[in-house]
Design brief:
Helix content: 55-70%
Largest sheet: none
Number of helices: 6
Order of helices and strands: HHHHHH
Radius of gyration: 53 Å
Structural class: mainly alpha
Distance between the termini: 113 Å
Number of strands: 0
Shape: rod-shaped
Mean pLDDT: 77
Amino acid sequence: MSRPDDIEKNDNAQIDALLERAMQTPEAPDAQPGDNGDAIDDDDADNKKEAETQEEREERAAAELKKVIKENAREDEQPLSRNFTLTKILGGDILSTEAIRSQIWLILLIAAFTVVYVANRYSCQKKLIEINRLNKELQNAKYKALSISSELTEMSRESNVLSNLNNNNDSTLKISSQPPYIIKIEE
């Protein structure tokens, strides 16, 4: 396994080679004075000076580009520092690709637990609402049963039964004036 420093050196060497190839232009064969018997005139000299300044500008631009690429272009990221400050957290340094990749399962686990927590709380609230509704129904049923029981007790009293019978003239039953007596049977 290669270290990040080795990878960076290899990348820098590759960048250097690519820039050198890009900067090389096919050179035209040098024309020697006297080939055609013509002398170099002033326009040719001015063109050469302009070409040289153009080449110098291109070389400076290439050097600057090379410098910027070395500083910024790399496939790996700088390792996270161990000390997190508020500015690093608020600045978003904590959300770098390497940090996210190394902690992806933890993030997914936290997200899953959050979903389960919210769903569990929602279902518990629904159950509590249902329990409260059923408790109210039970209390109403108890009150109704108690009132019906008290009405039945009131109606089944002996004095109330006799007064109802006398008022309706439904029966000839009357309260006995003699006390009850016990019949003894011998075996």
